[in-house]
Fold each of these.
Amino acid sequence: MSPKTYDVRTHGCQMNVHDSERLAGLLETAGYVDVNSLGADRPETADVVVLNTCAVRENADNKLYGNLGQLRPAKLRNPDMQIAVGGCLAQKDRGTIVERAPWVDVVFGTHNIGSLPVLLERARHNQQAEVEIRESLETFPSTLPTRRDSAYAGWVSISVGCNNTCTFCIVPSLRGKETDRRPGDVLAEIRALVEQGVIEVTLLGQNVNTYGVEFGDRLAFGKLLRACGEIDGLERVRFTSPHPAAFTEDVIVAMAETPNVMPSLHMPLQSGSDRVLKAMRRSYRSAKFLGIIDRVRELIPDAAITTDIIIGFPGETEEDFQGTLDVVRAARFSSAFTFQYSIRAGTPAATLPGQVPKTVVQDRYDRLIAVQEEVSWAGNRALEGTEVEVLVATGEGRKDAATHRLSGRSRDNRLVHFAVPDAAEAPRPGDLVTVGVTYGAPHHLVADSGPAGGAYRVRRTAGGDAWAALQKHGQAKPSVSLGMPAVGRPAPAPVQTACATA
């Protein structure tokens, strides 16, 4: 009998992507096979489809129910097929998902992703939908089995949840208060990944630079970055996302002094208007934000800084918007993730007066995009003629086949498309290549100097070896790795009394 198949579909942030790796690991451990690994013979729809949802992005509800509507015909054709909905929107909407889409079998939240296999079996046995939403973290995701997407890069959660109260954000109510892992647990997981061939890790948290709040060490994040620098074989360390209000000097110094911590920083601005920042309950102002940027560039001159910006927050005036444009020009972001404000039920901002008309928001959004593109293009053009080290990746260059290029990320996380000279060694995904930049486009760099006799140097890595081993065995992704047990001193054994053994 053929094994049952699964398909995990992810929406939203890197935390969701990492959670989906855990969900895939759980399903594989339960005997399911990734439908996308079966090639041309795979069925049209998997036996289990999991939608890992986001509640932050605009039209998240419409996207979920649109996807569920598309799955309904498959469910009608095959009643044994199961549909599960997890993630932030599941945590938020709970039972209403089954009310609106009664063909859904399982709904689970952000705090109990480890329950998925049991809930699927229970729904199958009871012939009814199973909805289980926990209000607090059941088990830290790192203890669960994982099916990583990449042989050479990995996500590592250092914390889950957030203690901030930004008026536009629903994450704290869905992910809960911040829960931190012990540094030893984090470093043990990173070392295990490196042993498997991973050469780049990204440290994840809703607010990474408050890491340590749970165990009382406000300098813990900087110490963790320095400890990562002592792990042999770990080539690149990234992290996302910090909060400007908690960004301290020790972290900047740790970034500058730790060679494998990359010169890239994602620093969410949200607005350049102090009045709007106050209304957002963002506990910093534009001057402090720019001061952090200046200090980062003082100690790390080649740092590329990216950001998040919300346009059209309730009450935003043209003057407020001009303040945002001023900060964008002064900060010289390499790129920006820009969002038009949309009401999120359950957030304080949803009921604020002064909701900005859609036409005004769209106009400001277009003007912001134009300014940021000008800034990004100037920054990329300034790199023409320089050499960059690229971690070769799969899936980064959608036009690589047509352009005969390979693609990857530079140390500062810019996307680079590069040409391989005729008869030269072609790097594998996971290898590192040094190339010369010939053109800086608004959203990427082109490095075609190699075929003309310019810079082109390949360094084979353990990451490339790990990727090649997968190809040799016909695998698209690494095998499931077991979750990381807690490390450190074991808990004391319970004291036995006479009556306890009677």
Amino acid sequence: MDTPCPPAPDTDRPVHLDQHDSVRTHVCQRLSDEVRRLENRIESLRRTDAPHAAIIIATYERMIERKRGFMARWGLADRRNY
């Protein structure tokens, strides 16, 4: 015979909005750091005579555009530190 499951206890977890804000700040800082690193790589590639530098630079620029687009869509653009 099947016995019914007891009802789940009513457990409301409190939402700490300040934690969400700290996550957003962390993500923004991380993305800003990544963009800065990519920009530095682009500058160093422009100074070298590497055979495929143009392709790598174009790829890095697309990555930067996507990261900045993500930051703009999620309202992180006003927090960036670069």
